[in-house]
Specification:
- The chain contains nine helices and eight strands.
- The protein has 285 residues and is α/β, with parallel strands linked by helices.
- The protein has one domain: Rossmann fold (3-Layer(aba) Sandwich).
- The protein has an eight-stranded mixed beta sheet, with helices on both faces.
């Protein structure tokens, strides 16, 4: 089999979250931290991901993994996993991991999850890469969330300007990218890329020569920063934000980032494609 070392990341914002005002009847019964409407929207978005999987070559691995520590991020990932399992349940050319939960609702231990990951890897090799594998292996990635202390700095700054700029999330993000108050958006984007590379390195131990598609779930502020960074050649500015539409990432919306074998990256979002050369040319062109 020809070596396939491309890695693609589907980077999704979490589903609509519950708040203190959310009535109990509107909360998802199975997925903590998100609403029933958010669950439904995520199931609909999964159909797009299923289309991506259909077009992958045989021997590809689909890994539902990277999340922040916030429950709504993991809950959204679980909706994606459960819906993909339902969509592909009758396919003989697709195998699944059983996921992190036992039937009685408890979590598998790390050793048990790793054992299953190795078994999936061996099945792929035995099939001579004629099947695709969907692996549900939630992995907390530190770089997916800026520190609460940094976000507190932004909140305090926003209190001083909210009457001037208004409550719109789009305007707030543009203000953040222009003034750079609170967490540094450039550092957030670069840290996120570092986290993705570490995630890739870990799963390459099990799928060294396969094309891998990762499905990750994060939050608006972090994804807004990363998407602007990629679309604007490594610089986060108010003007660069306009390249992704000047609007924050919506709930369950996702972009696609590819790590190419030559070390460069490609990013697709809202019907636009951006190339990112992983060197100083980004600052010069």
């Amino acid at each position: 089999m020809e070596k396939m070392e491309k890695s693609e990341f589907i980077l999704s914002r979490h589903a609509k979250k519950i708040s203190r005002e959310t009535p109990e009847e509107e909360m998802s019964e199975k997925y903590p931290g998100i609403t029933k409407e958010g669950e439904k929207e995520t199931r609909e978005k999964t159909k797009e991901i299923a289309g991506i999987i259909e077009n992958l070559p045989e021997g590809s691995a689909i890994v539902l993994s990277g999340v922040s520590k916030v429950p709504r991020a993991r809950a959204t990932l679980e909706v994606y996993a459960d819906e993909l399992r339902d969509i592909f349940k009758d396919r003989k050319d697709v195998i699944f991991s059983s996921g992190p939960r036992l039937k009685e609702g408890k979590e598998k231990g790390p050793a048990e999850q790793l054992k299953e990951l190795k078994e999936i890897s061996e099945k792929m090799k035995e099939s001579k890469e004629s099947i695709k594998a969907i692996v549900h292996f939630p992995l907390w990635i530190k770089q997916f969330t800026a520190s609460p202390e940094e976000w507190d700095k932004w909140a305090k700054y926003f209190e001083t300007v909210k009457d001037e700029i208004g409550q719109s999330g789009d305007v707030q993000i543009a203000e953040w990218f222009e003034k750079k108050k609170g967490p540094n958006p450039d550092k957030i984007a670069e840290d996120l890329l570092l986290g993705l590379k570490r995630e890739e390195k870990f799963f390459r131990k099990f799928f060294p020569d396969n094309e891998i598609v990762f499905i990750n779930v994060d939050h608006s502020g972090e994804l807004d920063a990363l998407f602007t960074y990629l679309a604007n050649k490594g610089e986060i500015t108010k003007e660069g934000f306009q390249k992704i539409g000047g609007e924050i990432v919506k709930e369950s919306e996702f972009g696609k980032l590819s790590f190419l074998p030559d070390g460069n990256m490609e990013f697709e979002y809202r019907d636009n494609k951006f190339s990112y050369k992983n060197n100083s040319e980004n600052k010069e062109n």
